[in-house]
């Protein structure tokens, strides 16, 4: 997702963390914290997002960023 936004992974994590300062959103299942192994084999923090989580995250993006992310995130989901 960071790549589609043209942003650093850490910046997208910061944006998600900012969203999750809202107690109602923190208790939702829209963002599930997880991790992945990067190309160096190091564990990195990430989130699995539902469609609602992606929508909330991209609302703060500009036109082309939003379009790129929506295309990437929803191309195989029929919507």
The main sheet comes to: 2 strands, antiparallel
Strand fraction band? Answer: 15-25%
- In spatial order, strands of the major sheet run 1-2
Radius of gyration from the alpha-carbon trace, in angstroms: 13 Å
Helix tally equals: 5
SSE pattern, N- to C-terminal: HHHEEHH
Given the helix and strand composition, which structural class is it? Answer: alpha+beta
Write down the overall mean pLDDT: 80
What share of residues is helical? Answer: 40-55%
The rounded distance between the terminal residues' Cα atoms is: 17 Å
Low-confidence segments, ≥5 residues, pLDDT <50? none
**Overall morphology:** globular
Kindly state the number of beta strands.
Answer: 2
Describe the fold and architecture.
- There is one protein chain.
- The protein has 5 helices and 2 strands.
- The model has no long low-confidence stretch (mean pLDDT about 80).
- It has about 80 residues and is an alpha+beta fold.
- Helix 4 runs antiparallel to helix 5.
- A two-stranded antiparallel sheet has the order 1-2.
Keyword list:
79 residues, 49% helix, 2 strands, 5 helices
